[in-house]
Amino acid sequence: MIDFKTFAHLAHIDLGEPQPKPTSLEGDQMEAANTLWTSEDGKIEVGVWECSQGRFTARRDTNSEICHIVSGRVTLHGPGGAAKDVGPGELLVLPLGWEGEWTIHEKTRRLYILHSI
Predict the structure, then answer these.
(1) What is the pLDDT of residue 78?
(2) Which has the closest alpha carbon to 114: 33, 56, 55, 52?
(3) What count of other Cβ atoms lies within 10 Å of the Cβ of residue 48?
(4) Do residues 106 and 70 lie in contact, with contact meaning Cβ atoms separated by under 8 Å?
(5) Would you call 8 exposed, middle or buried from its count of C-beta atoms within 10 A (0-12, 13-18, 19+)?
(6) DSSP states of 27-51 as a string?
(7) Is the separation of the CB atoms in 110 and 76 below 8 Å?
């Protein structure tokens, strides 16, 4: 039998103790995350992530990512200088191969779905 999973309101899920963000470029960024569900084959992961203000690099070399911003405000900087502001309630997709930077303007929490190749 295959059952479904439910989770508490994303704004209130405990993420544990924040740790320094390893790819941070500006600010003393701290991040925390809680994996909510992983598929049996390990190719899909769903979780909640939060990070403090600053700027960091990101790469999607081995997975794509879908993000729903729960709270906060960010600017994504892609290749060729493209930039997009994203805030609460918005959804974004970082396809396999995406490379860029995130600027976190205020502490941001997001739901993420990673799909590994």
Answers:
(1) 92
(2) 33
(3) 23
(4) no
(5) exposed
(6) S--EEEEEEEEE-TTS-EEEEEEEE
(7) no
Side chain identity, residue 98:
W
Please give the single-letter amino acid code of residue 110.
Answer: R
Name the CA radius of gyration of the chain, rounded: 14
Of 92, 15, 72, the residue nearest 83 (C-alpha): 92
Cα 49–Cα 79–Cα 56 angle in degrees, nearest 5? 35
Q: Which residues contact 35 (CB under 8 A, 6 or more apart)?
A: 45, 46, 47
Task: Give the Cα-Cα-Cα angle 56, 115, 102 (nearest 5 degrees).
Answer: 15
Report the sign of the C-alpha dihedral through residues 11, 59, 102, 52, in that order: positive
Q: Left if phi > 0, otherwise alpha if psi is -120 to 50, otherwise beta: which for 42?
A: left
Give the C-alpha separation, 110 to 55, whole Å: 16
Measured from the Cβ of residue 86, the count of other Cβ atoms closer than 10 Å reads: 19
Specify the DSSP class assigned to residue 39.
-
What are 32-83's pLDDT values in tens digits?
999 999 999 999 999 999 999 999 999 999 999 999 999 999 999 998 889 9
